[in-house]
């Protein structure tokens, strides 16, 4: 017998809806901040076609400022992969097998409680490691984001994508999913901007510097709030 066949898939879609709402709101905000690039499509719905081409090919530019296009490019890739991830669990829900068992004895209950306490302790101990996973995943995100940016897509790009999201999923089992996604996207955005300035010789304007500093403060704030939450639970 199986129970909760679709619960995990529903949970993934709840996470996706939250992520998409933030994604859409951020893009509307960037449209106001950076301004939309002139529509280059035919008459009718030129912006719709431009948005579709941006999602599929990352061209032509979506915003007037390069910073907006860089952020959107990285985040759109993350959103696409997250969508595929949610669709996978929608069509292939995770099943949990439950076998009927007789009423447990007192000894079994004591052993089960001890095992549960041990798992809880292991989860607490792995909390710091989860943050290491988020950091490593963010660094790998920079690798594949820069590969997409420069057009040097290869096997290393695919490995970096799968490895970064594997680390992200592992971290999300311990840390709040919203915090993990926010920090992950923030590290990728900051790293991509800095990589563009250091290695691709892109101009680092005052707006970019302010944006990077705000993201760094935001990431540190999320990490600090999560640490306080863990200490409070303990």
From TrEMBL:
Q: Which UniProt keywords apply?
A: Cell membrane, Membrane, Transmembrane, Transmembrane helix
Q: How does it sit in the membrane?
A: Multi-pass membrane protein
Name residues in a coiled coil. Answer: none
Record field: transmembrane = 20-39, 72-92, 130-147, 153-172, 179-200, 206-224
Q: Where in the cell is it found?
A: Cell membrane
Asked if the record carries the keyword Nucleotide-binding, the reply is no
Gene3D superfamilies hit by this protein: 1.10.3730.20
Q: Name one GO cellular component term.
A: plasma membrane
Tell me which InterPro entries the record gives.
EmrE-like, Small_drug/metabolite_transptr, Small_multidrug_res
The source's superkingdom equals Bacteria
List the molecular function annotations (GO) for this entry: transmembrane transporter activity
Tell me its family. Answer: Belongs to the drug/metabolite transporter (DMT) superfamily. Small multidrug resistance (SMR) (TC 2.A.7.1) family.
Q: Which PANTHER family match?
A: GUANIDINIUM EFFLUX SYSTEM SUBUNIT GDNC-RELATED, SMR FAMILY PROTON-DEPENDENT DRUG EFFLUX TRANSPORTER SUGE
Name under which the protein is recorded = Quaternary ammonium compound-resistance protein SugE
Q: What is the lineage of its organism?
A: Bacteria, Bacillati, Bacillota, Bacilli, Bacillales
């Amino acid at each position: 017998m199986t129970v909760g066949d679709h619960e995990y898939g529903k949970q993934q879609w709840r996470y996706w809806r939250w992520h998409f709402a933030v994604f859409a709101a951020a893009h509307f905000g960037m449209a106001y901040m950076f301004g939309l690039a002139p529509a280059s499509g035919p008459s009718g719905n030129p912006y719709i076609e431009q948005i579709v081409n941006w999602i599929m090919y990352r061209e032509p530019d979506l915003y007037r400022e390069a910073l907006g296009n860089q952020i959107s490019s990285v985040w759109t890739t993350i959103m696409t992969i997250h969508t595929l991830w949610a669709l996978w669990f929608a069509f292939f829900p995770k099943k949990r097998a439950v076998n009927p068992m007789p009423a447990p004895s007192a000894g079994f209950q004591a052993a089960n409680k001890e095992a549960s306490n041990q798992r809880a302790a292991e989860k607490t101990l792995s909390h710091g490691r989860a943050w290491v996973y988020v950091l490593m995943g963010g660094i790998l995100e920079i690798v594949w984001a820069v590969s997409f940016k420069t057009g040097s897509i290869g096997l290393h790009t695919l490995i970096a994508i799968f490895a970064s999201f594997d680390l992200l999923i592992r971290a999300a089992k311990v840390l709040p999913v919203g915090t993990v996604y926010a920090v992950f996207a923030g590290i990728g955005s900051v790293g991509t901007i800095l990589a563009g300035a250091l290695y691709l010789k892109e101009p680092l304007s005052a707006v970019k510097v302010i944006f990077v500093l705000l993201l760094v403060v935001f990431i540190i704030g999320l990490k600090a709030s999560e640490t306080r939450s863990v200490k409070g639970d303990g």
